[in-house]
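Lab notebook: predicted structure, single chain.

Context: the supervisor wants predicted structures on file for every construct in the current expression panel, including those that have not yet been purified. This is the next one on the list. No modifications to the sequence; it matches the entry in the shared construct table.
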Amino acid sequence: MYSLGRYRYAAFVSGARTCAHRASLILSVAILGCSTLAIGACSGAISGAAAGAPADPPLQSGFTFTTLDDPHSTTFTRLLGLNDVGKLCGYFGSGVPSDPSTGFVVYSGFQAQSFKNEKYPGAGDTVVTSVSNAKTIAGWYVSPQNPSWIFGFTERHGVWNSYRDVQLRKDHTSNLTKLLGLSDAGLAVGYYTDDSGVNHGFELNTVTDKFHGILPPSATSSVASGINGKGDVVGYLTLANGSVKGYLFKGFNFTEFGYPGAVSTQAVALTWNDDIVGSYVDGSGETHGFVLSKPLTSQQWQSVDEQNGLGSTVITGVNNHHVIVGYYNAADGSTNGFVGTPKT
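Prediction complete. Output recorded below exactly as produced.
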């Protein structure tokens, strides 16, 4: 059984109010974070944040990879997120009419019976991008009324809520809003696309139903893709010259970065300590995953390739234990999910 929450046109906070509003959100994160950690400590749940700042693994340590595909698909699975207590999420199906996308969560054990399908009621396609320690999932779905309409969603205990950035209702006819990241305090990040095809990053407080823009000053287009328990946000942006860089939004400041020598860099997730993961495209057009430590001081980069990948490895999530998830393209043409565990 499920029930539908009300359709959400959440209020948008203007750029002039962004800093003050964000300060209140970060305070909410701190308060709710303390409550979450206390619960975790009582229940015995493993939490990197509860143990304080987890130590960074040596960049030379590498990862041990495990391929993990949804049992319903032998050709297309993407893992997109994970939490600190062993739950993963993603989707299977490439999204074409003959192969619709269906979201899933995976419980610890990672066996066939550990996969649970998640589909927004009535939706044609559903993609689960993130799962919090608070047992909430987020992502986006394709409207059953119009396949060109895409809305963000959250789901907890069978209650689904749909979101459309209010800027689209005010100023545009397009309908594309995606949620890409979620914190335990109920803060989600994502983006909407306007009528001109320009992406605009945002942060959404799912408790108060209010959006506010995350707008890197040098960007012509931007996406907010990940948020940690302190409210720090990562994403990626397009500059006026067409290049794509990652960014970290922390303490009201934006910091841009790119993998050395890369054509394009997309940051998608981060840990409590601001260790950032994502992917980059090299000069040959091949895609690799990356881990970036100490982004604000002495940047340390690690390039990551799944051993079975054929020129394309994408990291999409990381938790506070430095476990990563993502997907790779194999020699047989299939797309496969993977879990990477630090060797140390």
